[in-house]
Amino acid sequence: MEKRVGVLALQGAFREHRQVLKQLGCDVVEVRKTSDLEGIHGLIIPGGESTAMGKQLQINDLGEKIKELGAKDLPIFGTCAGMILLSKTIIDSDQYRLNLMDTTVERNAFGRQIASFETDLQVPAMGTHPLRAVFIRAPYLREVAPNVGILAEFEGKIVFARQGNLLASAFHPELTPDHRVHQYFLGMIDEHWVK
Amino acid sequence: MAEFGSLKVKTGLAEMLKGGVIMDVTTPEQAIIAEEAGACAVMALERVPSDIRAEGGVARMADPTIIQSIMEVVSIPVMAKARIGHFVEAQILESLGVDYIDESEVLTPADDAFHINKHDFKVPFVCGCRNLGEALRRIGEGAAMIRTKGEPGTGNVVEAVRHMRTVMSDMRALSVMPKEELMTAAKTMGAPYELVLYVAEHGKLPVVNFAAGGIATPADAALMMQLGVDGVFVGSGIFKSDNPKARAKAIVMATTHYNDAKILAEVSKDLGQPMTGIEISTLTDAQRMQDRGW
């Protein structure tokens, strides 16, 4: 299936996601306004600053439209800031969110930039070979509802999870040459549109 | 095993700031205004560049109390400036936990020959440049992010434009150069050979490149974005204008929608007076901050 994938391009590392998706043969649309959402098969919300993106999501109902699509099972993948925006509960924050995943997220949960790190992550759903994962002022999921599947943990903290059509990672698969996470998300798109 | 302070992690934060606006702030109140407007980071300072320019004297790292009070009130990254070559100011800033250090020509240089060896630090650095050679020297020293110098505190974008155009045209020249000419190009521009090779091969810098120095309006920000920068720093341009809240928001919008003239027109309306600008030719050599850096 020819896949048309949107990448939210308000702020952050949207270009890196676009490059990976192009390498994987997708048609990529940068999403800055609601009309950009038309005809997409899936959406990626990149890393960046969740508050900065949240402000702009509130302009002209862009966020509300994404919420609607997410509720109608459009596959959405959030990395880092994207994980924060997808979560229903953000600890100690009343910032704007898309309110889609039954997860409780903590921002900057590993600390400030000085505590940012990279590591080899075991992700059973992606095979036995570990995934190099880059965490930058990263969040993690403090709690998830029973309907949320945990794909990976780091030191007991949930850093990768899926709830039906929604996928969220605390790390940045767009910054490493290993494209298994994006391929997994494209698999979700196939599942949704081919059935 | 977690690996901290790697180049990937340092450049990675800059990647996350792209398409965003980093705003100079001097108080927690200003930091909150910046965050509310959608800034992707703030630069914590004691004085904005236009005040440093007006007051003269030696400009140094800000009082840690100011930086900490700003770090406490916002959730976005907080940057702070150290003087060129002043690695102890940088050590202090790192110990405070700031997210990025700007080794900045806005402050009075502490060393008139050498910059900080930025590889020594786990915290990432951003440095200014006027051309490709300068950018690559700073990256060679460990900078994980580059910005144009522009002429800080003037509200006049002409120097930032010049510096960005120079960097872009230097890169274009390298990308069509036969390989045997690249060593001499490296020698001429005073840049590490390996980085010259990188630019020749990829046609871009190995790190994120922002615009800084003189950006005062939404149109200025969009101009720099269209010239090819990854995001913008706004120093004096916001809090020295009539209506900082509205201007900050408008510049954020303009940086995202830099290619959409209709949106740019909309956000440029009713912002009140921008900061009063300075014509560059009226500055004496000593007043030109961009000439600091080696």
Automatic annotation (TrEMBL), chain A:
Q: Keyword set for this entry?
A: Glutamine amidotransferase, Hydrolase, Lyase, Pyridoxal phosphate, Transferase
Assembly and partners? In the presence of PdxS, forms a dodecamer of heterodimers. Only shows activity in the heterodimer.
Give the catalytic activity.
L-glutamine + H2O = L-glutamate + NH4(+); aldehydo-D-ribose 5-phosphate + D-glyceraldehyde 3-phosphate + L-glutamine = pyridoxal 5'-phosphate + L-glutamate + phosphate + 3 H2O + H(+)
Species of origin reads: Desulfosporosinus acididurans
Q: Which pathway is this protein engaged in?
A: Cofactor biosynthesis; pyridoxal 5'-phosphate biosynthesis
The UniProt record lists the EC number as 4.3.3.6, 3.5.1.2
What GO terms in the biological process aspect are recorded for it? L-glutamine catabolic process; pyridoxal phosphate biosynthetic process; pyridoxine metabolic process
The active site of this protein is located at C80, H172, E174
GO terms for molecular function, please? Answer: glutaminase activity; pyridoxal 5'-phosphate synthase (glutamine hydrolysing) activity; transferase activity
By sequence similarity, the record places it as follows: Belongs to the glutaminase PdxT/SNO family.
Q: What does this protein do?
A: Catalyzes the hydrolysis of glutamine to glutamate and ammonia as part of the biosynthesis of pyridoxal 5'-phosphate. The resulting ammonia molecule is channeled to the active site of PdxS.
Annotated Gene3D superfamilies: 3.40.50.880
Q: Name one GO cellular component term.
A: cytosol
Q: Which Pfam families match?
A: SNO (PF01174)
Q: Does the keyword Transferase apply?
A: yes
Q: Which domain of life is it from?
A: Bacteria
Q: What is this protein called?
A: Pyridoxal 5'-phosphate synthase subunit PdxT
From TrEMBL, chain B:
Provide the catalytic activity annotation: aldehydo-D-ribose 5-phosphate + D-glyceraldehyde 3-phosphate + L-glutamine = pyridoxal 5'-phosphate + L-glutamate + phosphate + 3 H2O + H(+)
Q: Which InterPro entries would you find in this protein's record?
A: Aldolase_TIM, PdxS/SNZ, PdxS/SNZ_N, RibuloseP-bd_barrel
Q: Which GO terms describe its molecular function?
A: pyridoxal 5'-phosphate synthase (glutamine hydrolysing) activity
The pathway is: Cofactor biosynthesis; pyridoxal 5'-phosphate biosynthesis
Q: Which NCBIfam families match?
A: PRK04180.1, pyridoxal 5'-phosphate synthase lyase subunit PdxS
Recorded family membership: Belongs to the PdxS/SNZ family.
Identify the PANTHER family for this entry: PYRIDOXAL 5'-PHOSPHATE SYNTHASE SUBUNIT SNZ1-RELATED
Q: What is this protein called?
A: Pyridoxal 5'-phosphate synthase subunit PdxS
* Organism field: Desulfosporosinus acididurans
User: What taxonomic lineage is listed for the species of origin?
Assistant: Bacteria, Bacillati, Bacillota, Clostridia, Eubacteriales
This chain is encoded by the gene named pdxS
